[in-house]
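Bit of a strange request maybe. I'm writing a small parser for structure token strings and I need a real example to test against, not something I typed by hand. Could someone generate the tokens for this chain?
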Amino acid sequence: MKTKREPIMDAARRGVSWLISQQNAEGQFGNEDDVNAYYKDAYPLRIAGEPAAAAKCMNYSVKRFMTEEGDFMNSRTQRSAGSYTRYYCQIYPNFWFLRGACALNRFDLAQRILGFLKTCQDETTGGAYYEVDRKSGLLDSNSTACICLGGLMCGDLNAAAKAGDAMLAWAHMQKDPNRYYLRWQPKGALQTRFDEDKSLYYVVDAEKTGQYYWQVGLPLVALAKLYTVTKDANYLKGAVKIYDFLMSCQPDVVASSPVGKLGWGSAILFNITGDSRYKETNRKITEYIMSKQNPDGYWLAPTYKTVNDQPLRITTDLTGEFSAWLLDFLTELG
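Reply from user aminoacidic:
Good idea to test on real output. This should exercise your parser:
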């Protein structure tokens, strides 16, 4: 049975309405004082047709979290309270803020955000460092995709193409058909040795469930979008290669929390090629996301049973993200 447009839009609007219900006059969600509570929300609020709420969310975020350099953080000693941007892809929140700034036509703000993103781009390879201070010397997949998409959004094709070429080089380094490594050194060596308890931040293992699939999902999106601008077939081939790898993973690749970026990438690939397998992947992911939405509009992480148990910063994060994915799916599929 085909998923109709109206229920998808209704689900996105219910998510956005719930976000608005948590927002005070200044744009703050409850008493949340963590960048992770805000970075995904201005974008879906705006494209769902709630410009005032989106502007309040963005204005609060800029006032509270944005630095003079164009970065976003809780403080100089803590980027966020969550684990993700401590261990991996520290500029990921910046990418979402950039999406929101572009949706709000805040092009001045978008340029400031992109300017900081580009400070994390390796001058030689075009890849992006996972730490903003480059301390580890490691490049990562998601950060590189963030710069590629940021460049496309702001018309900086040079930065976007350099990042795209880095992602292609990274894809060609992968030799194990069951493992996609996520970090590499500027000279080209994949990071294949790491602490096992941090493995989810270093590799997507096709033989295991519960992988962080988004870490190759966003590069899929970036390469596919770069192809639409450049018409360079190598970028499309790179996107398809990532899609094929993800579809070789366990069944939860289309039925777990980290599925949104694969759903977005699948919709883009269908838009480009018309191949029904991409539309079918997107359909499964759309239905999964909608099945997990609470009737009141929010989403819970698998580890929480009620909205009162789950920290508000996680609820606004998930609700903003899943609402955005549903809206992005509709945008690509028309």
